């Protein structure tokens, strides 16, 4: 309702806004501070109408509104409320005595300096109003000389113009470099990016913006951030007018798409003006049709923009959405409507913010300047004196940030899309099949059709084939140029939506659509000051200044423009051979295999083309910024991990982007820095598992190759291309060559970021949490002569087990003996700590086997997926052995998370008890089941915890319902996420351990960023890879070790347990107790006697817990006499009888699900079904390998029917083996920690290296 209210206010529908506000006032749970802000909006809108149409009666009505809806409800007032009521008084009352009483009354509500803030609201009170008020209340009168002086001071400084400053900053050192060869793109984007970057073309190429005055730099930055909607329309208009000047019509077949888009713009604009007229008629109609009701719903939101801008946004968004999915494939209606509505909402918000940030009048500055010296008259005892709050407290953002309802967004998107489908035409010219003459016809550019996909009928938007050809040939402008690097330091973070860019909006936390929990928790933490350290950490990351590494850029552009493949740059036209088409035969399998092979080639080409298109954007940005200093503002995800906001060019990009970046500030290498520069070269080359001394020697041993790579990168022996990260290796070759060729290498000023990477950082945190000495050695928490490699350690353990199994004639071990390498297990080890499932691990390992041993299935006789399943079990077993303590902690995480997800909070319990939320269970069994289902649907407690930096983390996983929304195009089934949705227990449970580790990762990084900033280091981070100057590596490494120790010296797990106990105090959860235990039998006997429903047992236990917490001894005694299933459980101290949550299977580190064999079989059979569409002919002779595979499947219960029966029977038996009991929410004891002392880390030089 809030967004509807705001839309009505903005389009002048005050009467309708009044009705909505009355409904909102009746919502008891709506915050009073937010409600007074809505009243302020209503008062302001009413005053605006009265300015246009003076009406004393309406002004009197505002006084009644204040008395009935604000004062009577005891709402807190703001300075804006007082200003509005003063204005209403001045408009409604001409009798001097009553006017004097009203003004005195309302000014009395804003004593002292608050009164000055009231008078400063120039957008409400005019100069004449101010004169009347200050005449009645002379305390606030301003002398004429004060006004003149303040007005003079408010004039802008007469600094030189931006253009003059630019000319003064020209440097003679810069040189021109080649243009970037454009990649023909299936869609839009590149030209818009270049249009935005054309700002740099207006600046001399040898001008360094960083040398300009701050005011000029901020002006340039603001221009970069402004959207490209107006620029796109201007470009369309220019090309259309150019054609008309040449005497050509834009409908000619060879007209550019830009000129056609301008025709679309005009036609769609006219159509939307008609739609606005229909909306007016629908709102005025006494008898409304369904279409009228729809227009009444979305009309106020469309009116927030203009038909011209809505038309441009619709065209750009539609082309952008189709480009992402592939213009020749089409896009689902739900997807394109969602994107269109999102772009429209964002554009309207941006326009509102631009207007809101417009400069205030000088008179406001005059009044505010007086506030520092104004005499404070003793405030009269006004009725609302104690209730006056600041406008900031009224949460101005409550409206601006109120998300549009999904139903409204859907109808807005559908209305705009429908209008585009009706108006966008394209001229198609064809040759007549008989007369051979060219005939033309205007056809719809887009069409709405339905297609069957995976058994479901989906609405699709398809592009006209002629339009597809044009879009492939002629890339156009869209939103892709939105967030570029900044040319000034980012704005400090001050609020959830205030920080980073100057004008473009950005949120502090990246949250999924519909997730309100994380935002509410974060805003509450900001208000308490708990997010200050996070703010400072993000600000520190944003202050790191960057420049483009020009020598690398020049090489990259030469390679790019050659159109050939080089390093990770794909070829413009990759030559991937297509297998010859098989001859016609009776066997359809051969042709199906050929079709699959052709599709695979097409997919590979399409993938390479997409990569090249994305790189095209990155290179254009790098070329534009090549002479500039720039910055990356950062924000965080819900776990606290930091990410740069600029999308395309940032240090978290792939190897080629990292190679393009260097620090803007340089530092002399010194002896240590020269050493670390050599070590860095070994690291990026891939020689990073040796000792530091060996890595340094590696660089010295390859000096000839290094110098050759730097001198002749494309024409020499290309040694740098053999590196693991070739572009970063090339950048290091340039830097090292320049340093060694300088007169004094240790005095060389280096700008290259040198990296220090953690050893599977997640396992480092787990080893510290669990105190695992063996695991700590494997991840370099313990000092050592050489860096330990956990991946090699796990690979060796797997090899040893395979040797043992081969001796026992295990067929898998015999086939895999000698084939296990570090690469086979690395990804699974790395991701296991972050929650990879057993099924996921099998796929990871299978992918490696396919790449390393493509002929293994022929040699072994069975599919690689079965081999991967065998290896995955051994990997998981090795990890659980190596990190025993971490394994136990993951189980503990799962246990406490499982209880929280099956709990009802104290507030929910009180509501259930008092409001009769659920039906009584004394009805028929069917009603009992309904009551139980309603009760189980109340599990809404998401898992929430606080990081060591005091940032709250709220997991966003809920089971959102779907809703059918009727639109003018078709009915859409959309997910409607709400805070009241039940939690998704499985996702909550399985995501908790990895997300908790991610939050520790994030804490370690931000602590390190803060300390490095305080020490004057340039610092950047890519999650668990930290960068600084070579000369500062030793200092940064000390900071990294100290920050890690600071985190783990404290009892991290113990603090989490205490937080959970405090956060969920008073909750009751639904536990499961194993049958055939003494406590289960006693509870069952109790239930047979009492015959209570699950709800009745809950209310009984709630009453018992309430009495136990009472300060009255008699009530406590009464509670102790009560008998409930929970009291029986407590009396028998039967904690061991609790069953583990059903979703905890395979949760522990390296844990394998109990049904792994059946899962292996199902996976293998599914793989065969997916890859063999037709079964082999029964008459074909079986090969020995096929006979072995069949025998293997027989051993593993090959029958899918039998497997299904067995699994179903297992699930049924498992369900029968437990009973459900309401217990007070408590948490199990923390697992015992190992003997590893994290302080030993201070002596480990390979912790990050």
TrEMBL record:
PROSITE patterns (UniProt xref): RNA_POL_PHAGE_1, RNA_POL_PHAGE_2
Region (Disordered), start-end ranges: 146-169
Catalytic activity line of the entry: RNA(n) + a ribonucleoside 5'-triphosphate = RNA(n+1) + diphosphate
Compositional bias (Low complexity): 149-165
Record GO biological process: mitochondrial transcription
Lineage: superkingdom: Eukaryota
EC numbers, comma separated: 2.7.7.6
Keywords, sorted A to Z: DNA-directed RNA polymerase, Mitochondrion, Nucleotidyltransferase, Transcription, Transferase, Transit peptide
Compartments it resides in: Mitochondrion
Transmembrane helix listed as a keyword: no
GO molecular function, one term: mitochondrial promoter sequence-specific DNA binding
SUPFAM superfamilies, sorted: DNA/RNA polymerases
EC class (word): transferase
Domain DNA-directed RNA polymerase N-terminal: 219-543
Function statement: DNA-dependent RNA polymerase catalyzes the transcription of DNA into RNA using the four ribonucleoside triphosphates as substrates.
Sequence similarity: Belongs to the phage and mitochondrial RNA polymerase family.
The protein's name in its UniProt record: DNA-directed RNA polymerase
Organism name: Colletotrichum chlorophyti
Taxonomic classification: Eukaryota, Fungi, Dikarya, Ascomycota, Pezizomycotina
């Amino acid at each position: 309702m809030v967004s509807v209210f705001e839309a009505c206010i903005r389009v002048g529908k005050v009467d309708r806004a009044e009705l909505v506000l009355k409904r909102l006032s009746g919502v008891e749970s709506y915050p009073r501070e937010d409600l007074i802000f809505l009243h302020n909006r209503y008062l302001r809108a009413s005053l605006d109408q009265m300015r246009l149409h003076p009406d004393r009666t309406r002004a009197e009505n505002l006084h009644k509104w204040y008395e009935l809806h604000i004062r009577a409800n005891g709402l807190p007032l703001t300075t804006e409320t007082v200003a509005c009521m003063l204005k209403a008084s001045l408009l409604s009352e001409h009798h001097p005595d009553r006017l004097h009483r009203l003004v005195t009354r309302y000014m009395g509500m804003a004593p002292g300096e608050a009164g000055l803030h009231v008078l400063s609201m120039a957008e409400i009170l005019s100069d004449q109003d101010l004169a009347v008020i200050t005449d009645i209340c002379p305390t606030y009168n301003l002398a004429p000389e004060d006004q003149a002086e303040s007005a003079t001071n408010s004039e802008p400084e007469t600094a030189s113009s931006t253009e003059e400053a630019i000319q003064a900053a020209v440097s003679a050192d810069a040189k021109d470099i080649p243009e970037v060869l454009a990649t023909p793109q299936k869609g839009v984007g590149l030209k818009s990016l270049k249009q935005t970057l054309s700002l740099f073309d207006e600046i001399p190429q040898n001008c360094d913006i960083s040398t300009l005055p701050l005011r000029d730099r901020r002006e340039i930055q603001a221009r970069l951030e402004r959207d490209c909607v107006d620029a796109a329309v201007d470009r369309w208009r220019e090309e259309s007018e150019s054609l008309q000047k040449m005497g050509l019509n834009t409908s000619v077949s060879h007209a550019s798409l830009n000129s056609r888009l301008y025709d679309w713009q005009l036609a769609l604009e006219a159509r939307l003006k008609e739609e606005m007229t229909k909306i007016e008629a629908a709102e005025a109609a006494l008898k409304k049709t369904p279409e009228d009701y729809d227009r009444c719903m979305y009309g106020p939101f469309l009116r927030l923009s203009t038909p011209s801008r809505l038309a441009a946004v619709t065209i750009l968004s539609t082309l952008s959405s189709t480009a992402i999915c592939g213009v020749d494939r089409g896009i689902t209606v739900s997807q394109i409507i969602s994107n269109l509505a999102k772009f429209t909402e964002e554009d309207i918000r941006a326009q509102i913010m631009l207007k809101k940030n417009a400069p205030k009048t000088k008179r406001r500055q005059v009044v505010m300047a007086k506030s520092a010296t104004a005499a404070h008259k003793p405030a009269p005892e006004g009725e609302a004196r104690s209730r006056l709050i600041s406008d900031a407290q009224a949460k101005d953002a409550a409206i601006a940030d109120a998300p549009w309802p999904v139903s409204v967004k859907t109808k807005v998107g559908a209305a705009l899309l429908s209008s585009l489908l009706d108006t966008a035409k394209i001229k198609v010219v064809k040759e007549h099949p008989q007369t051979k003459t060219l005939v033309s016809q205007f056809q719809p550019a887009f069409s709405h059709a339905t297609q069957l996909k995976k058994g479901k009928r989906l609405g699709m938007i398809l592009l006209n084939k002629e339009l597809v050809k044009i879009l492939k040939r002629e890339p156009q402008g869209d939103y892709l140029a939105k967030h570029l690097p900044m040319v000034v330091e980012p704005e400090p973070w001050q609020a959830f939506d205030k920080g980073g860019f100057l004008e473009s909006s950005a949120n502090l936390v990246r949250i999924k659509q519909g997730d309100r929990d994380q935002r509410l928790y974060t805003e509450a933490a900001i208000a308490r000051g708990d997010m200050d350290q996070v703010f400072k950490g993000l600000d520190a990351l944003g202050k790191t200044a960057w420049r483009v590494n020009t020598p690398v850029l020049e090489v990259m552009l030469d390679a790019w423009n050659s159109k050939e493949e080089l390093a990770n740059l794909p070829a413009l036209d990759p030559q991937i051979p297509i297998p010859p088409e098989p001859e016609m035969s009776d066997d359809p399998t051969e042709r199906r295999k050929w079709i699959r092979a052709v599709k695979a080639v097409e997919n590979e080409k399409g993938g390479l083309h997409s990569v090249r298109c994305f790189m095209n954007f990155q290179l254009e940005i790098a070329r534009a910024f090549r002479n500039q200093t720039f910055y990356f503002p950062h924000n965080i995800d819900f776990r606290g991990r930091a990410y740069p906001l600029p999308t395309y060019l940032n240090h978290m990009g792939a190897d080629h982007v990292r190679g393009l970046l260097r620090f803007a500030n340089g530092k002399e290498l010194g002896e240590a820095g020269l050493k670390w520069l050599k070590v860095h070269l070994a690291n990026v080359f891939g020689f990073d598992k040796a000792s530091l001394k060996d890595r340094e020697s590696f660089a010295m041993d390859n000096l000839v190759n290094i110098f050759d790579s730097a001198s002749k990168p494309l024409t020499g022996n290309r040694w740098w291309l053999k590196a693991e990260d070739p572009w970063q290796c090339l950048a290091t070759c340039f830097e090292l060559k320049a340093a060694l060729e300088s007169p004094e290498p240790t005095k060389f000023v280096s700008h290259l970021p040198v990296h220090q990477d953690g050893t599977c950082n997640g396992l480092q945190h787990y080893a510290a949490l669990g105190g695992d000495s063996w695991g700590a050695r494997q991840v370099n928490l313990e000092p050592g002569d050489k860096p330990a490699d956990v991946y090699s350690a796990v690979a060796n353990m797997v090899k040893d087990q395979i040797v043992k199994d081969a001796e026992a004639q295990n067929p898998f071990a015999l086939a895999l003996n000698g084939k296990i390498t570090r690469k086979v297990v690395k990804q699974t080890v790395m991701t296991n700590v972050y929650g990879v499932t057993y099924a996921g691990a099998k796929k990871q390992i299978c992918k490696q086997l396919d790449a390393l041993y493509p002929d293994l299935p022929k040699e072994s006789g069975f599919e690689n997926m079965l081999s991967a399943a065998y290896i995955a079990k051994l990997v998981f077993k090795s990890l659980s052995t190596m990190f025993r303590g971490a394994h136990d902690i993951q189980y503990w995480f799962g246990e406490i998370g499982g209880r929280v997800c099956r709990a009802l909070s104290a507030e929910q319990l009180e509501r259930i008890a008092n409001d009769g939320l659920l039906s009584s269970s004394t009805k028929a069994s069917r009603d009992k089941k309904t009551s139980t289902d309603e009760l189980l649907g109340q599990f809404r407690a998401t898992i929430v915890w606080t990081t060591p930096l005091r940032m709250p983390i709220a997991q966003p996983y809920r089971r959102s319902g779907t809703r059918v929304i009727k639109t003018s195009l078709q009915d859409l089934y959309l997910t409607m996420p709400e805070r009241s949705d039940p939690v998704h227990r499985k996702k909550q449970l399985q995501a908790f351990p990895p997300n908790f580790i991610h939050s520790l990762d994030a804490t370690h990084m931000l602590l390190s960023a803060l300390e490095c900033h305080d020490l004057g280091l340039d610092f950047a981070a890519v999650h668990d890879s930290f960068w600084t100057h070579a000369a500062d590596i030793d200092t940064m490494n000390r900071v990294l070790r100290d920050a890690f120790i600071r985190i783990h010296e404290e009892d991290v797990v113990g603090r989490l347990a205490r937080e959970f106990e405090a956060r969920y105090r008073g909750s009751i959860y639904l536990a499961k107790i194993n049958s055939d235990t003494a406590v289960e039998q006693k509870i069952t006997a109790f239930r047979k006697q009492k015959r209570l429903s699950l709800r009745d047992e809950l209310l009984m236990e709630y009453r018992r817990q309430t009495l136990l917490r009472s300060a009255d001894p008699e009530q406590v005694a009464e509670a102790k006499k009560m008998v409930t299933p929970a009291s029986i459980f407590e009396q028998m101290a039967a904690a061991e009888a609790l069953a583990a949550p059903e979703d905890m299977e395979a949760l522990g580190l390296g844990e394998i699900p109990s049904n792994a064999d059946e899962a292996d079989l199902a996976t293998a059979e599914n793989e065969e079904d997916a890859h063999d569409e037709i079964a082999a002919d029964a008459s074909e002779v079986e090969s020995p390998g096929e006979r072995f595979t069949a025998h293997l499947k027989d051993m593993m219960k090959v029958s899918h029917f039998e497997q299904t029966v067995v699994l179903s029977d297992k699930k049924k038996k498992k369900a029968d083996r437990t009973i459900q009991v309401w217990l007070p929410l408590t948490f199990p004891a923390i697992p015992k920690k190992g003997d590893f002392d994290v302080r030993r880390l201070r002596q480990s030089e390979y912790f990050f290296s």
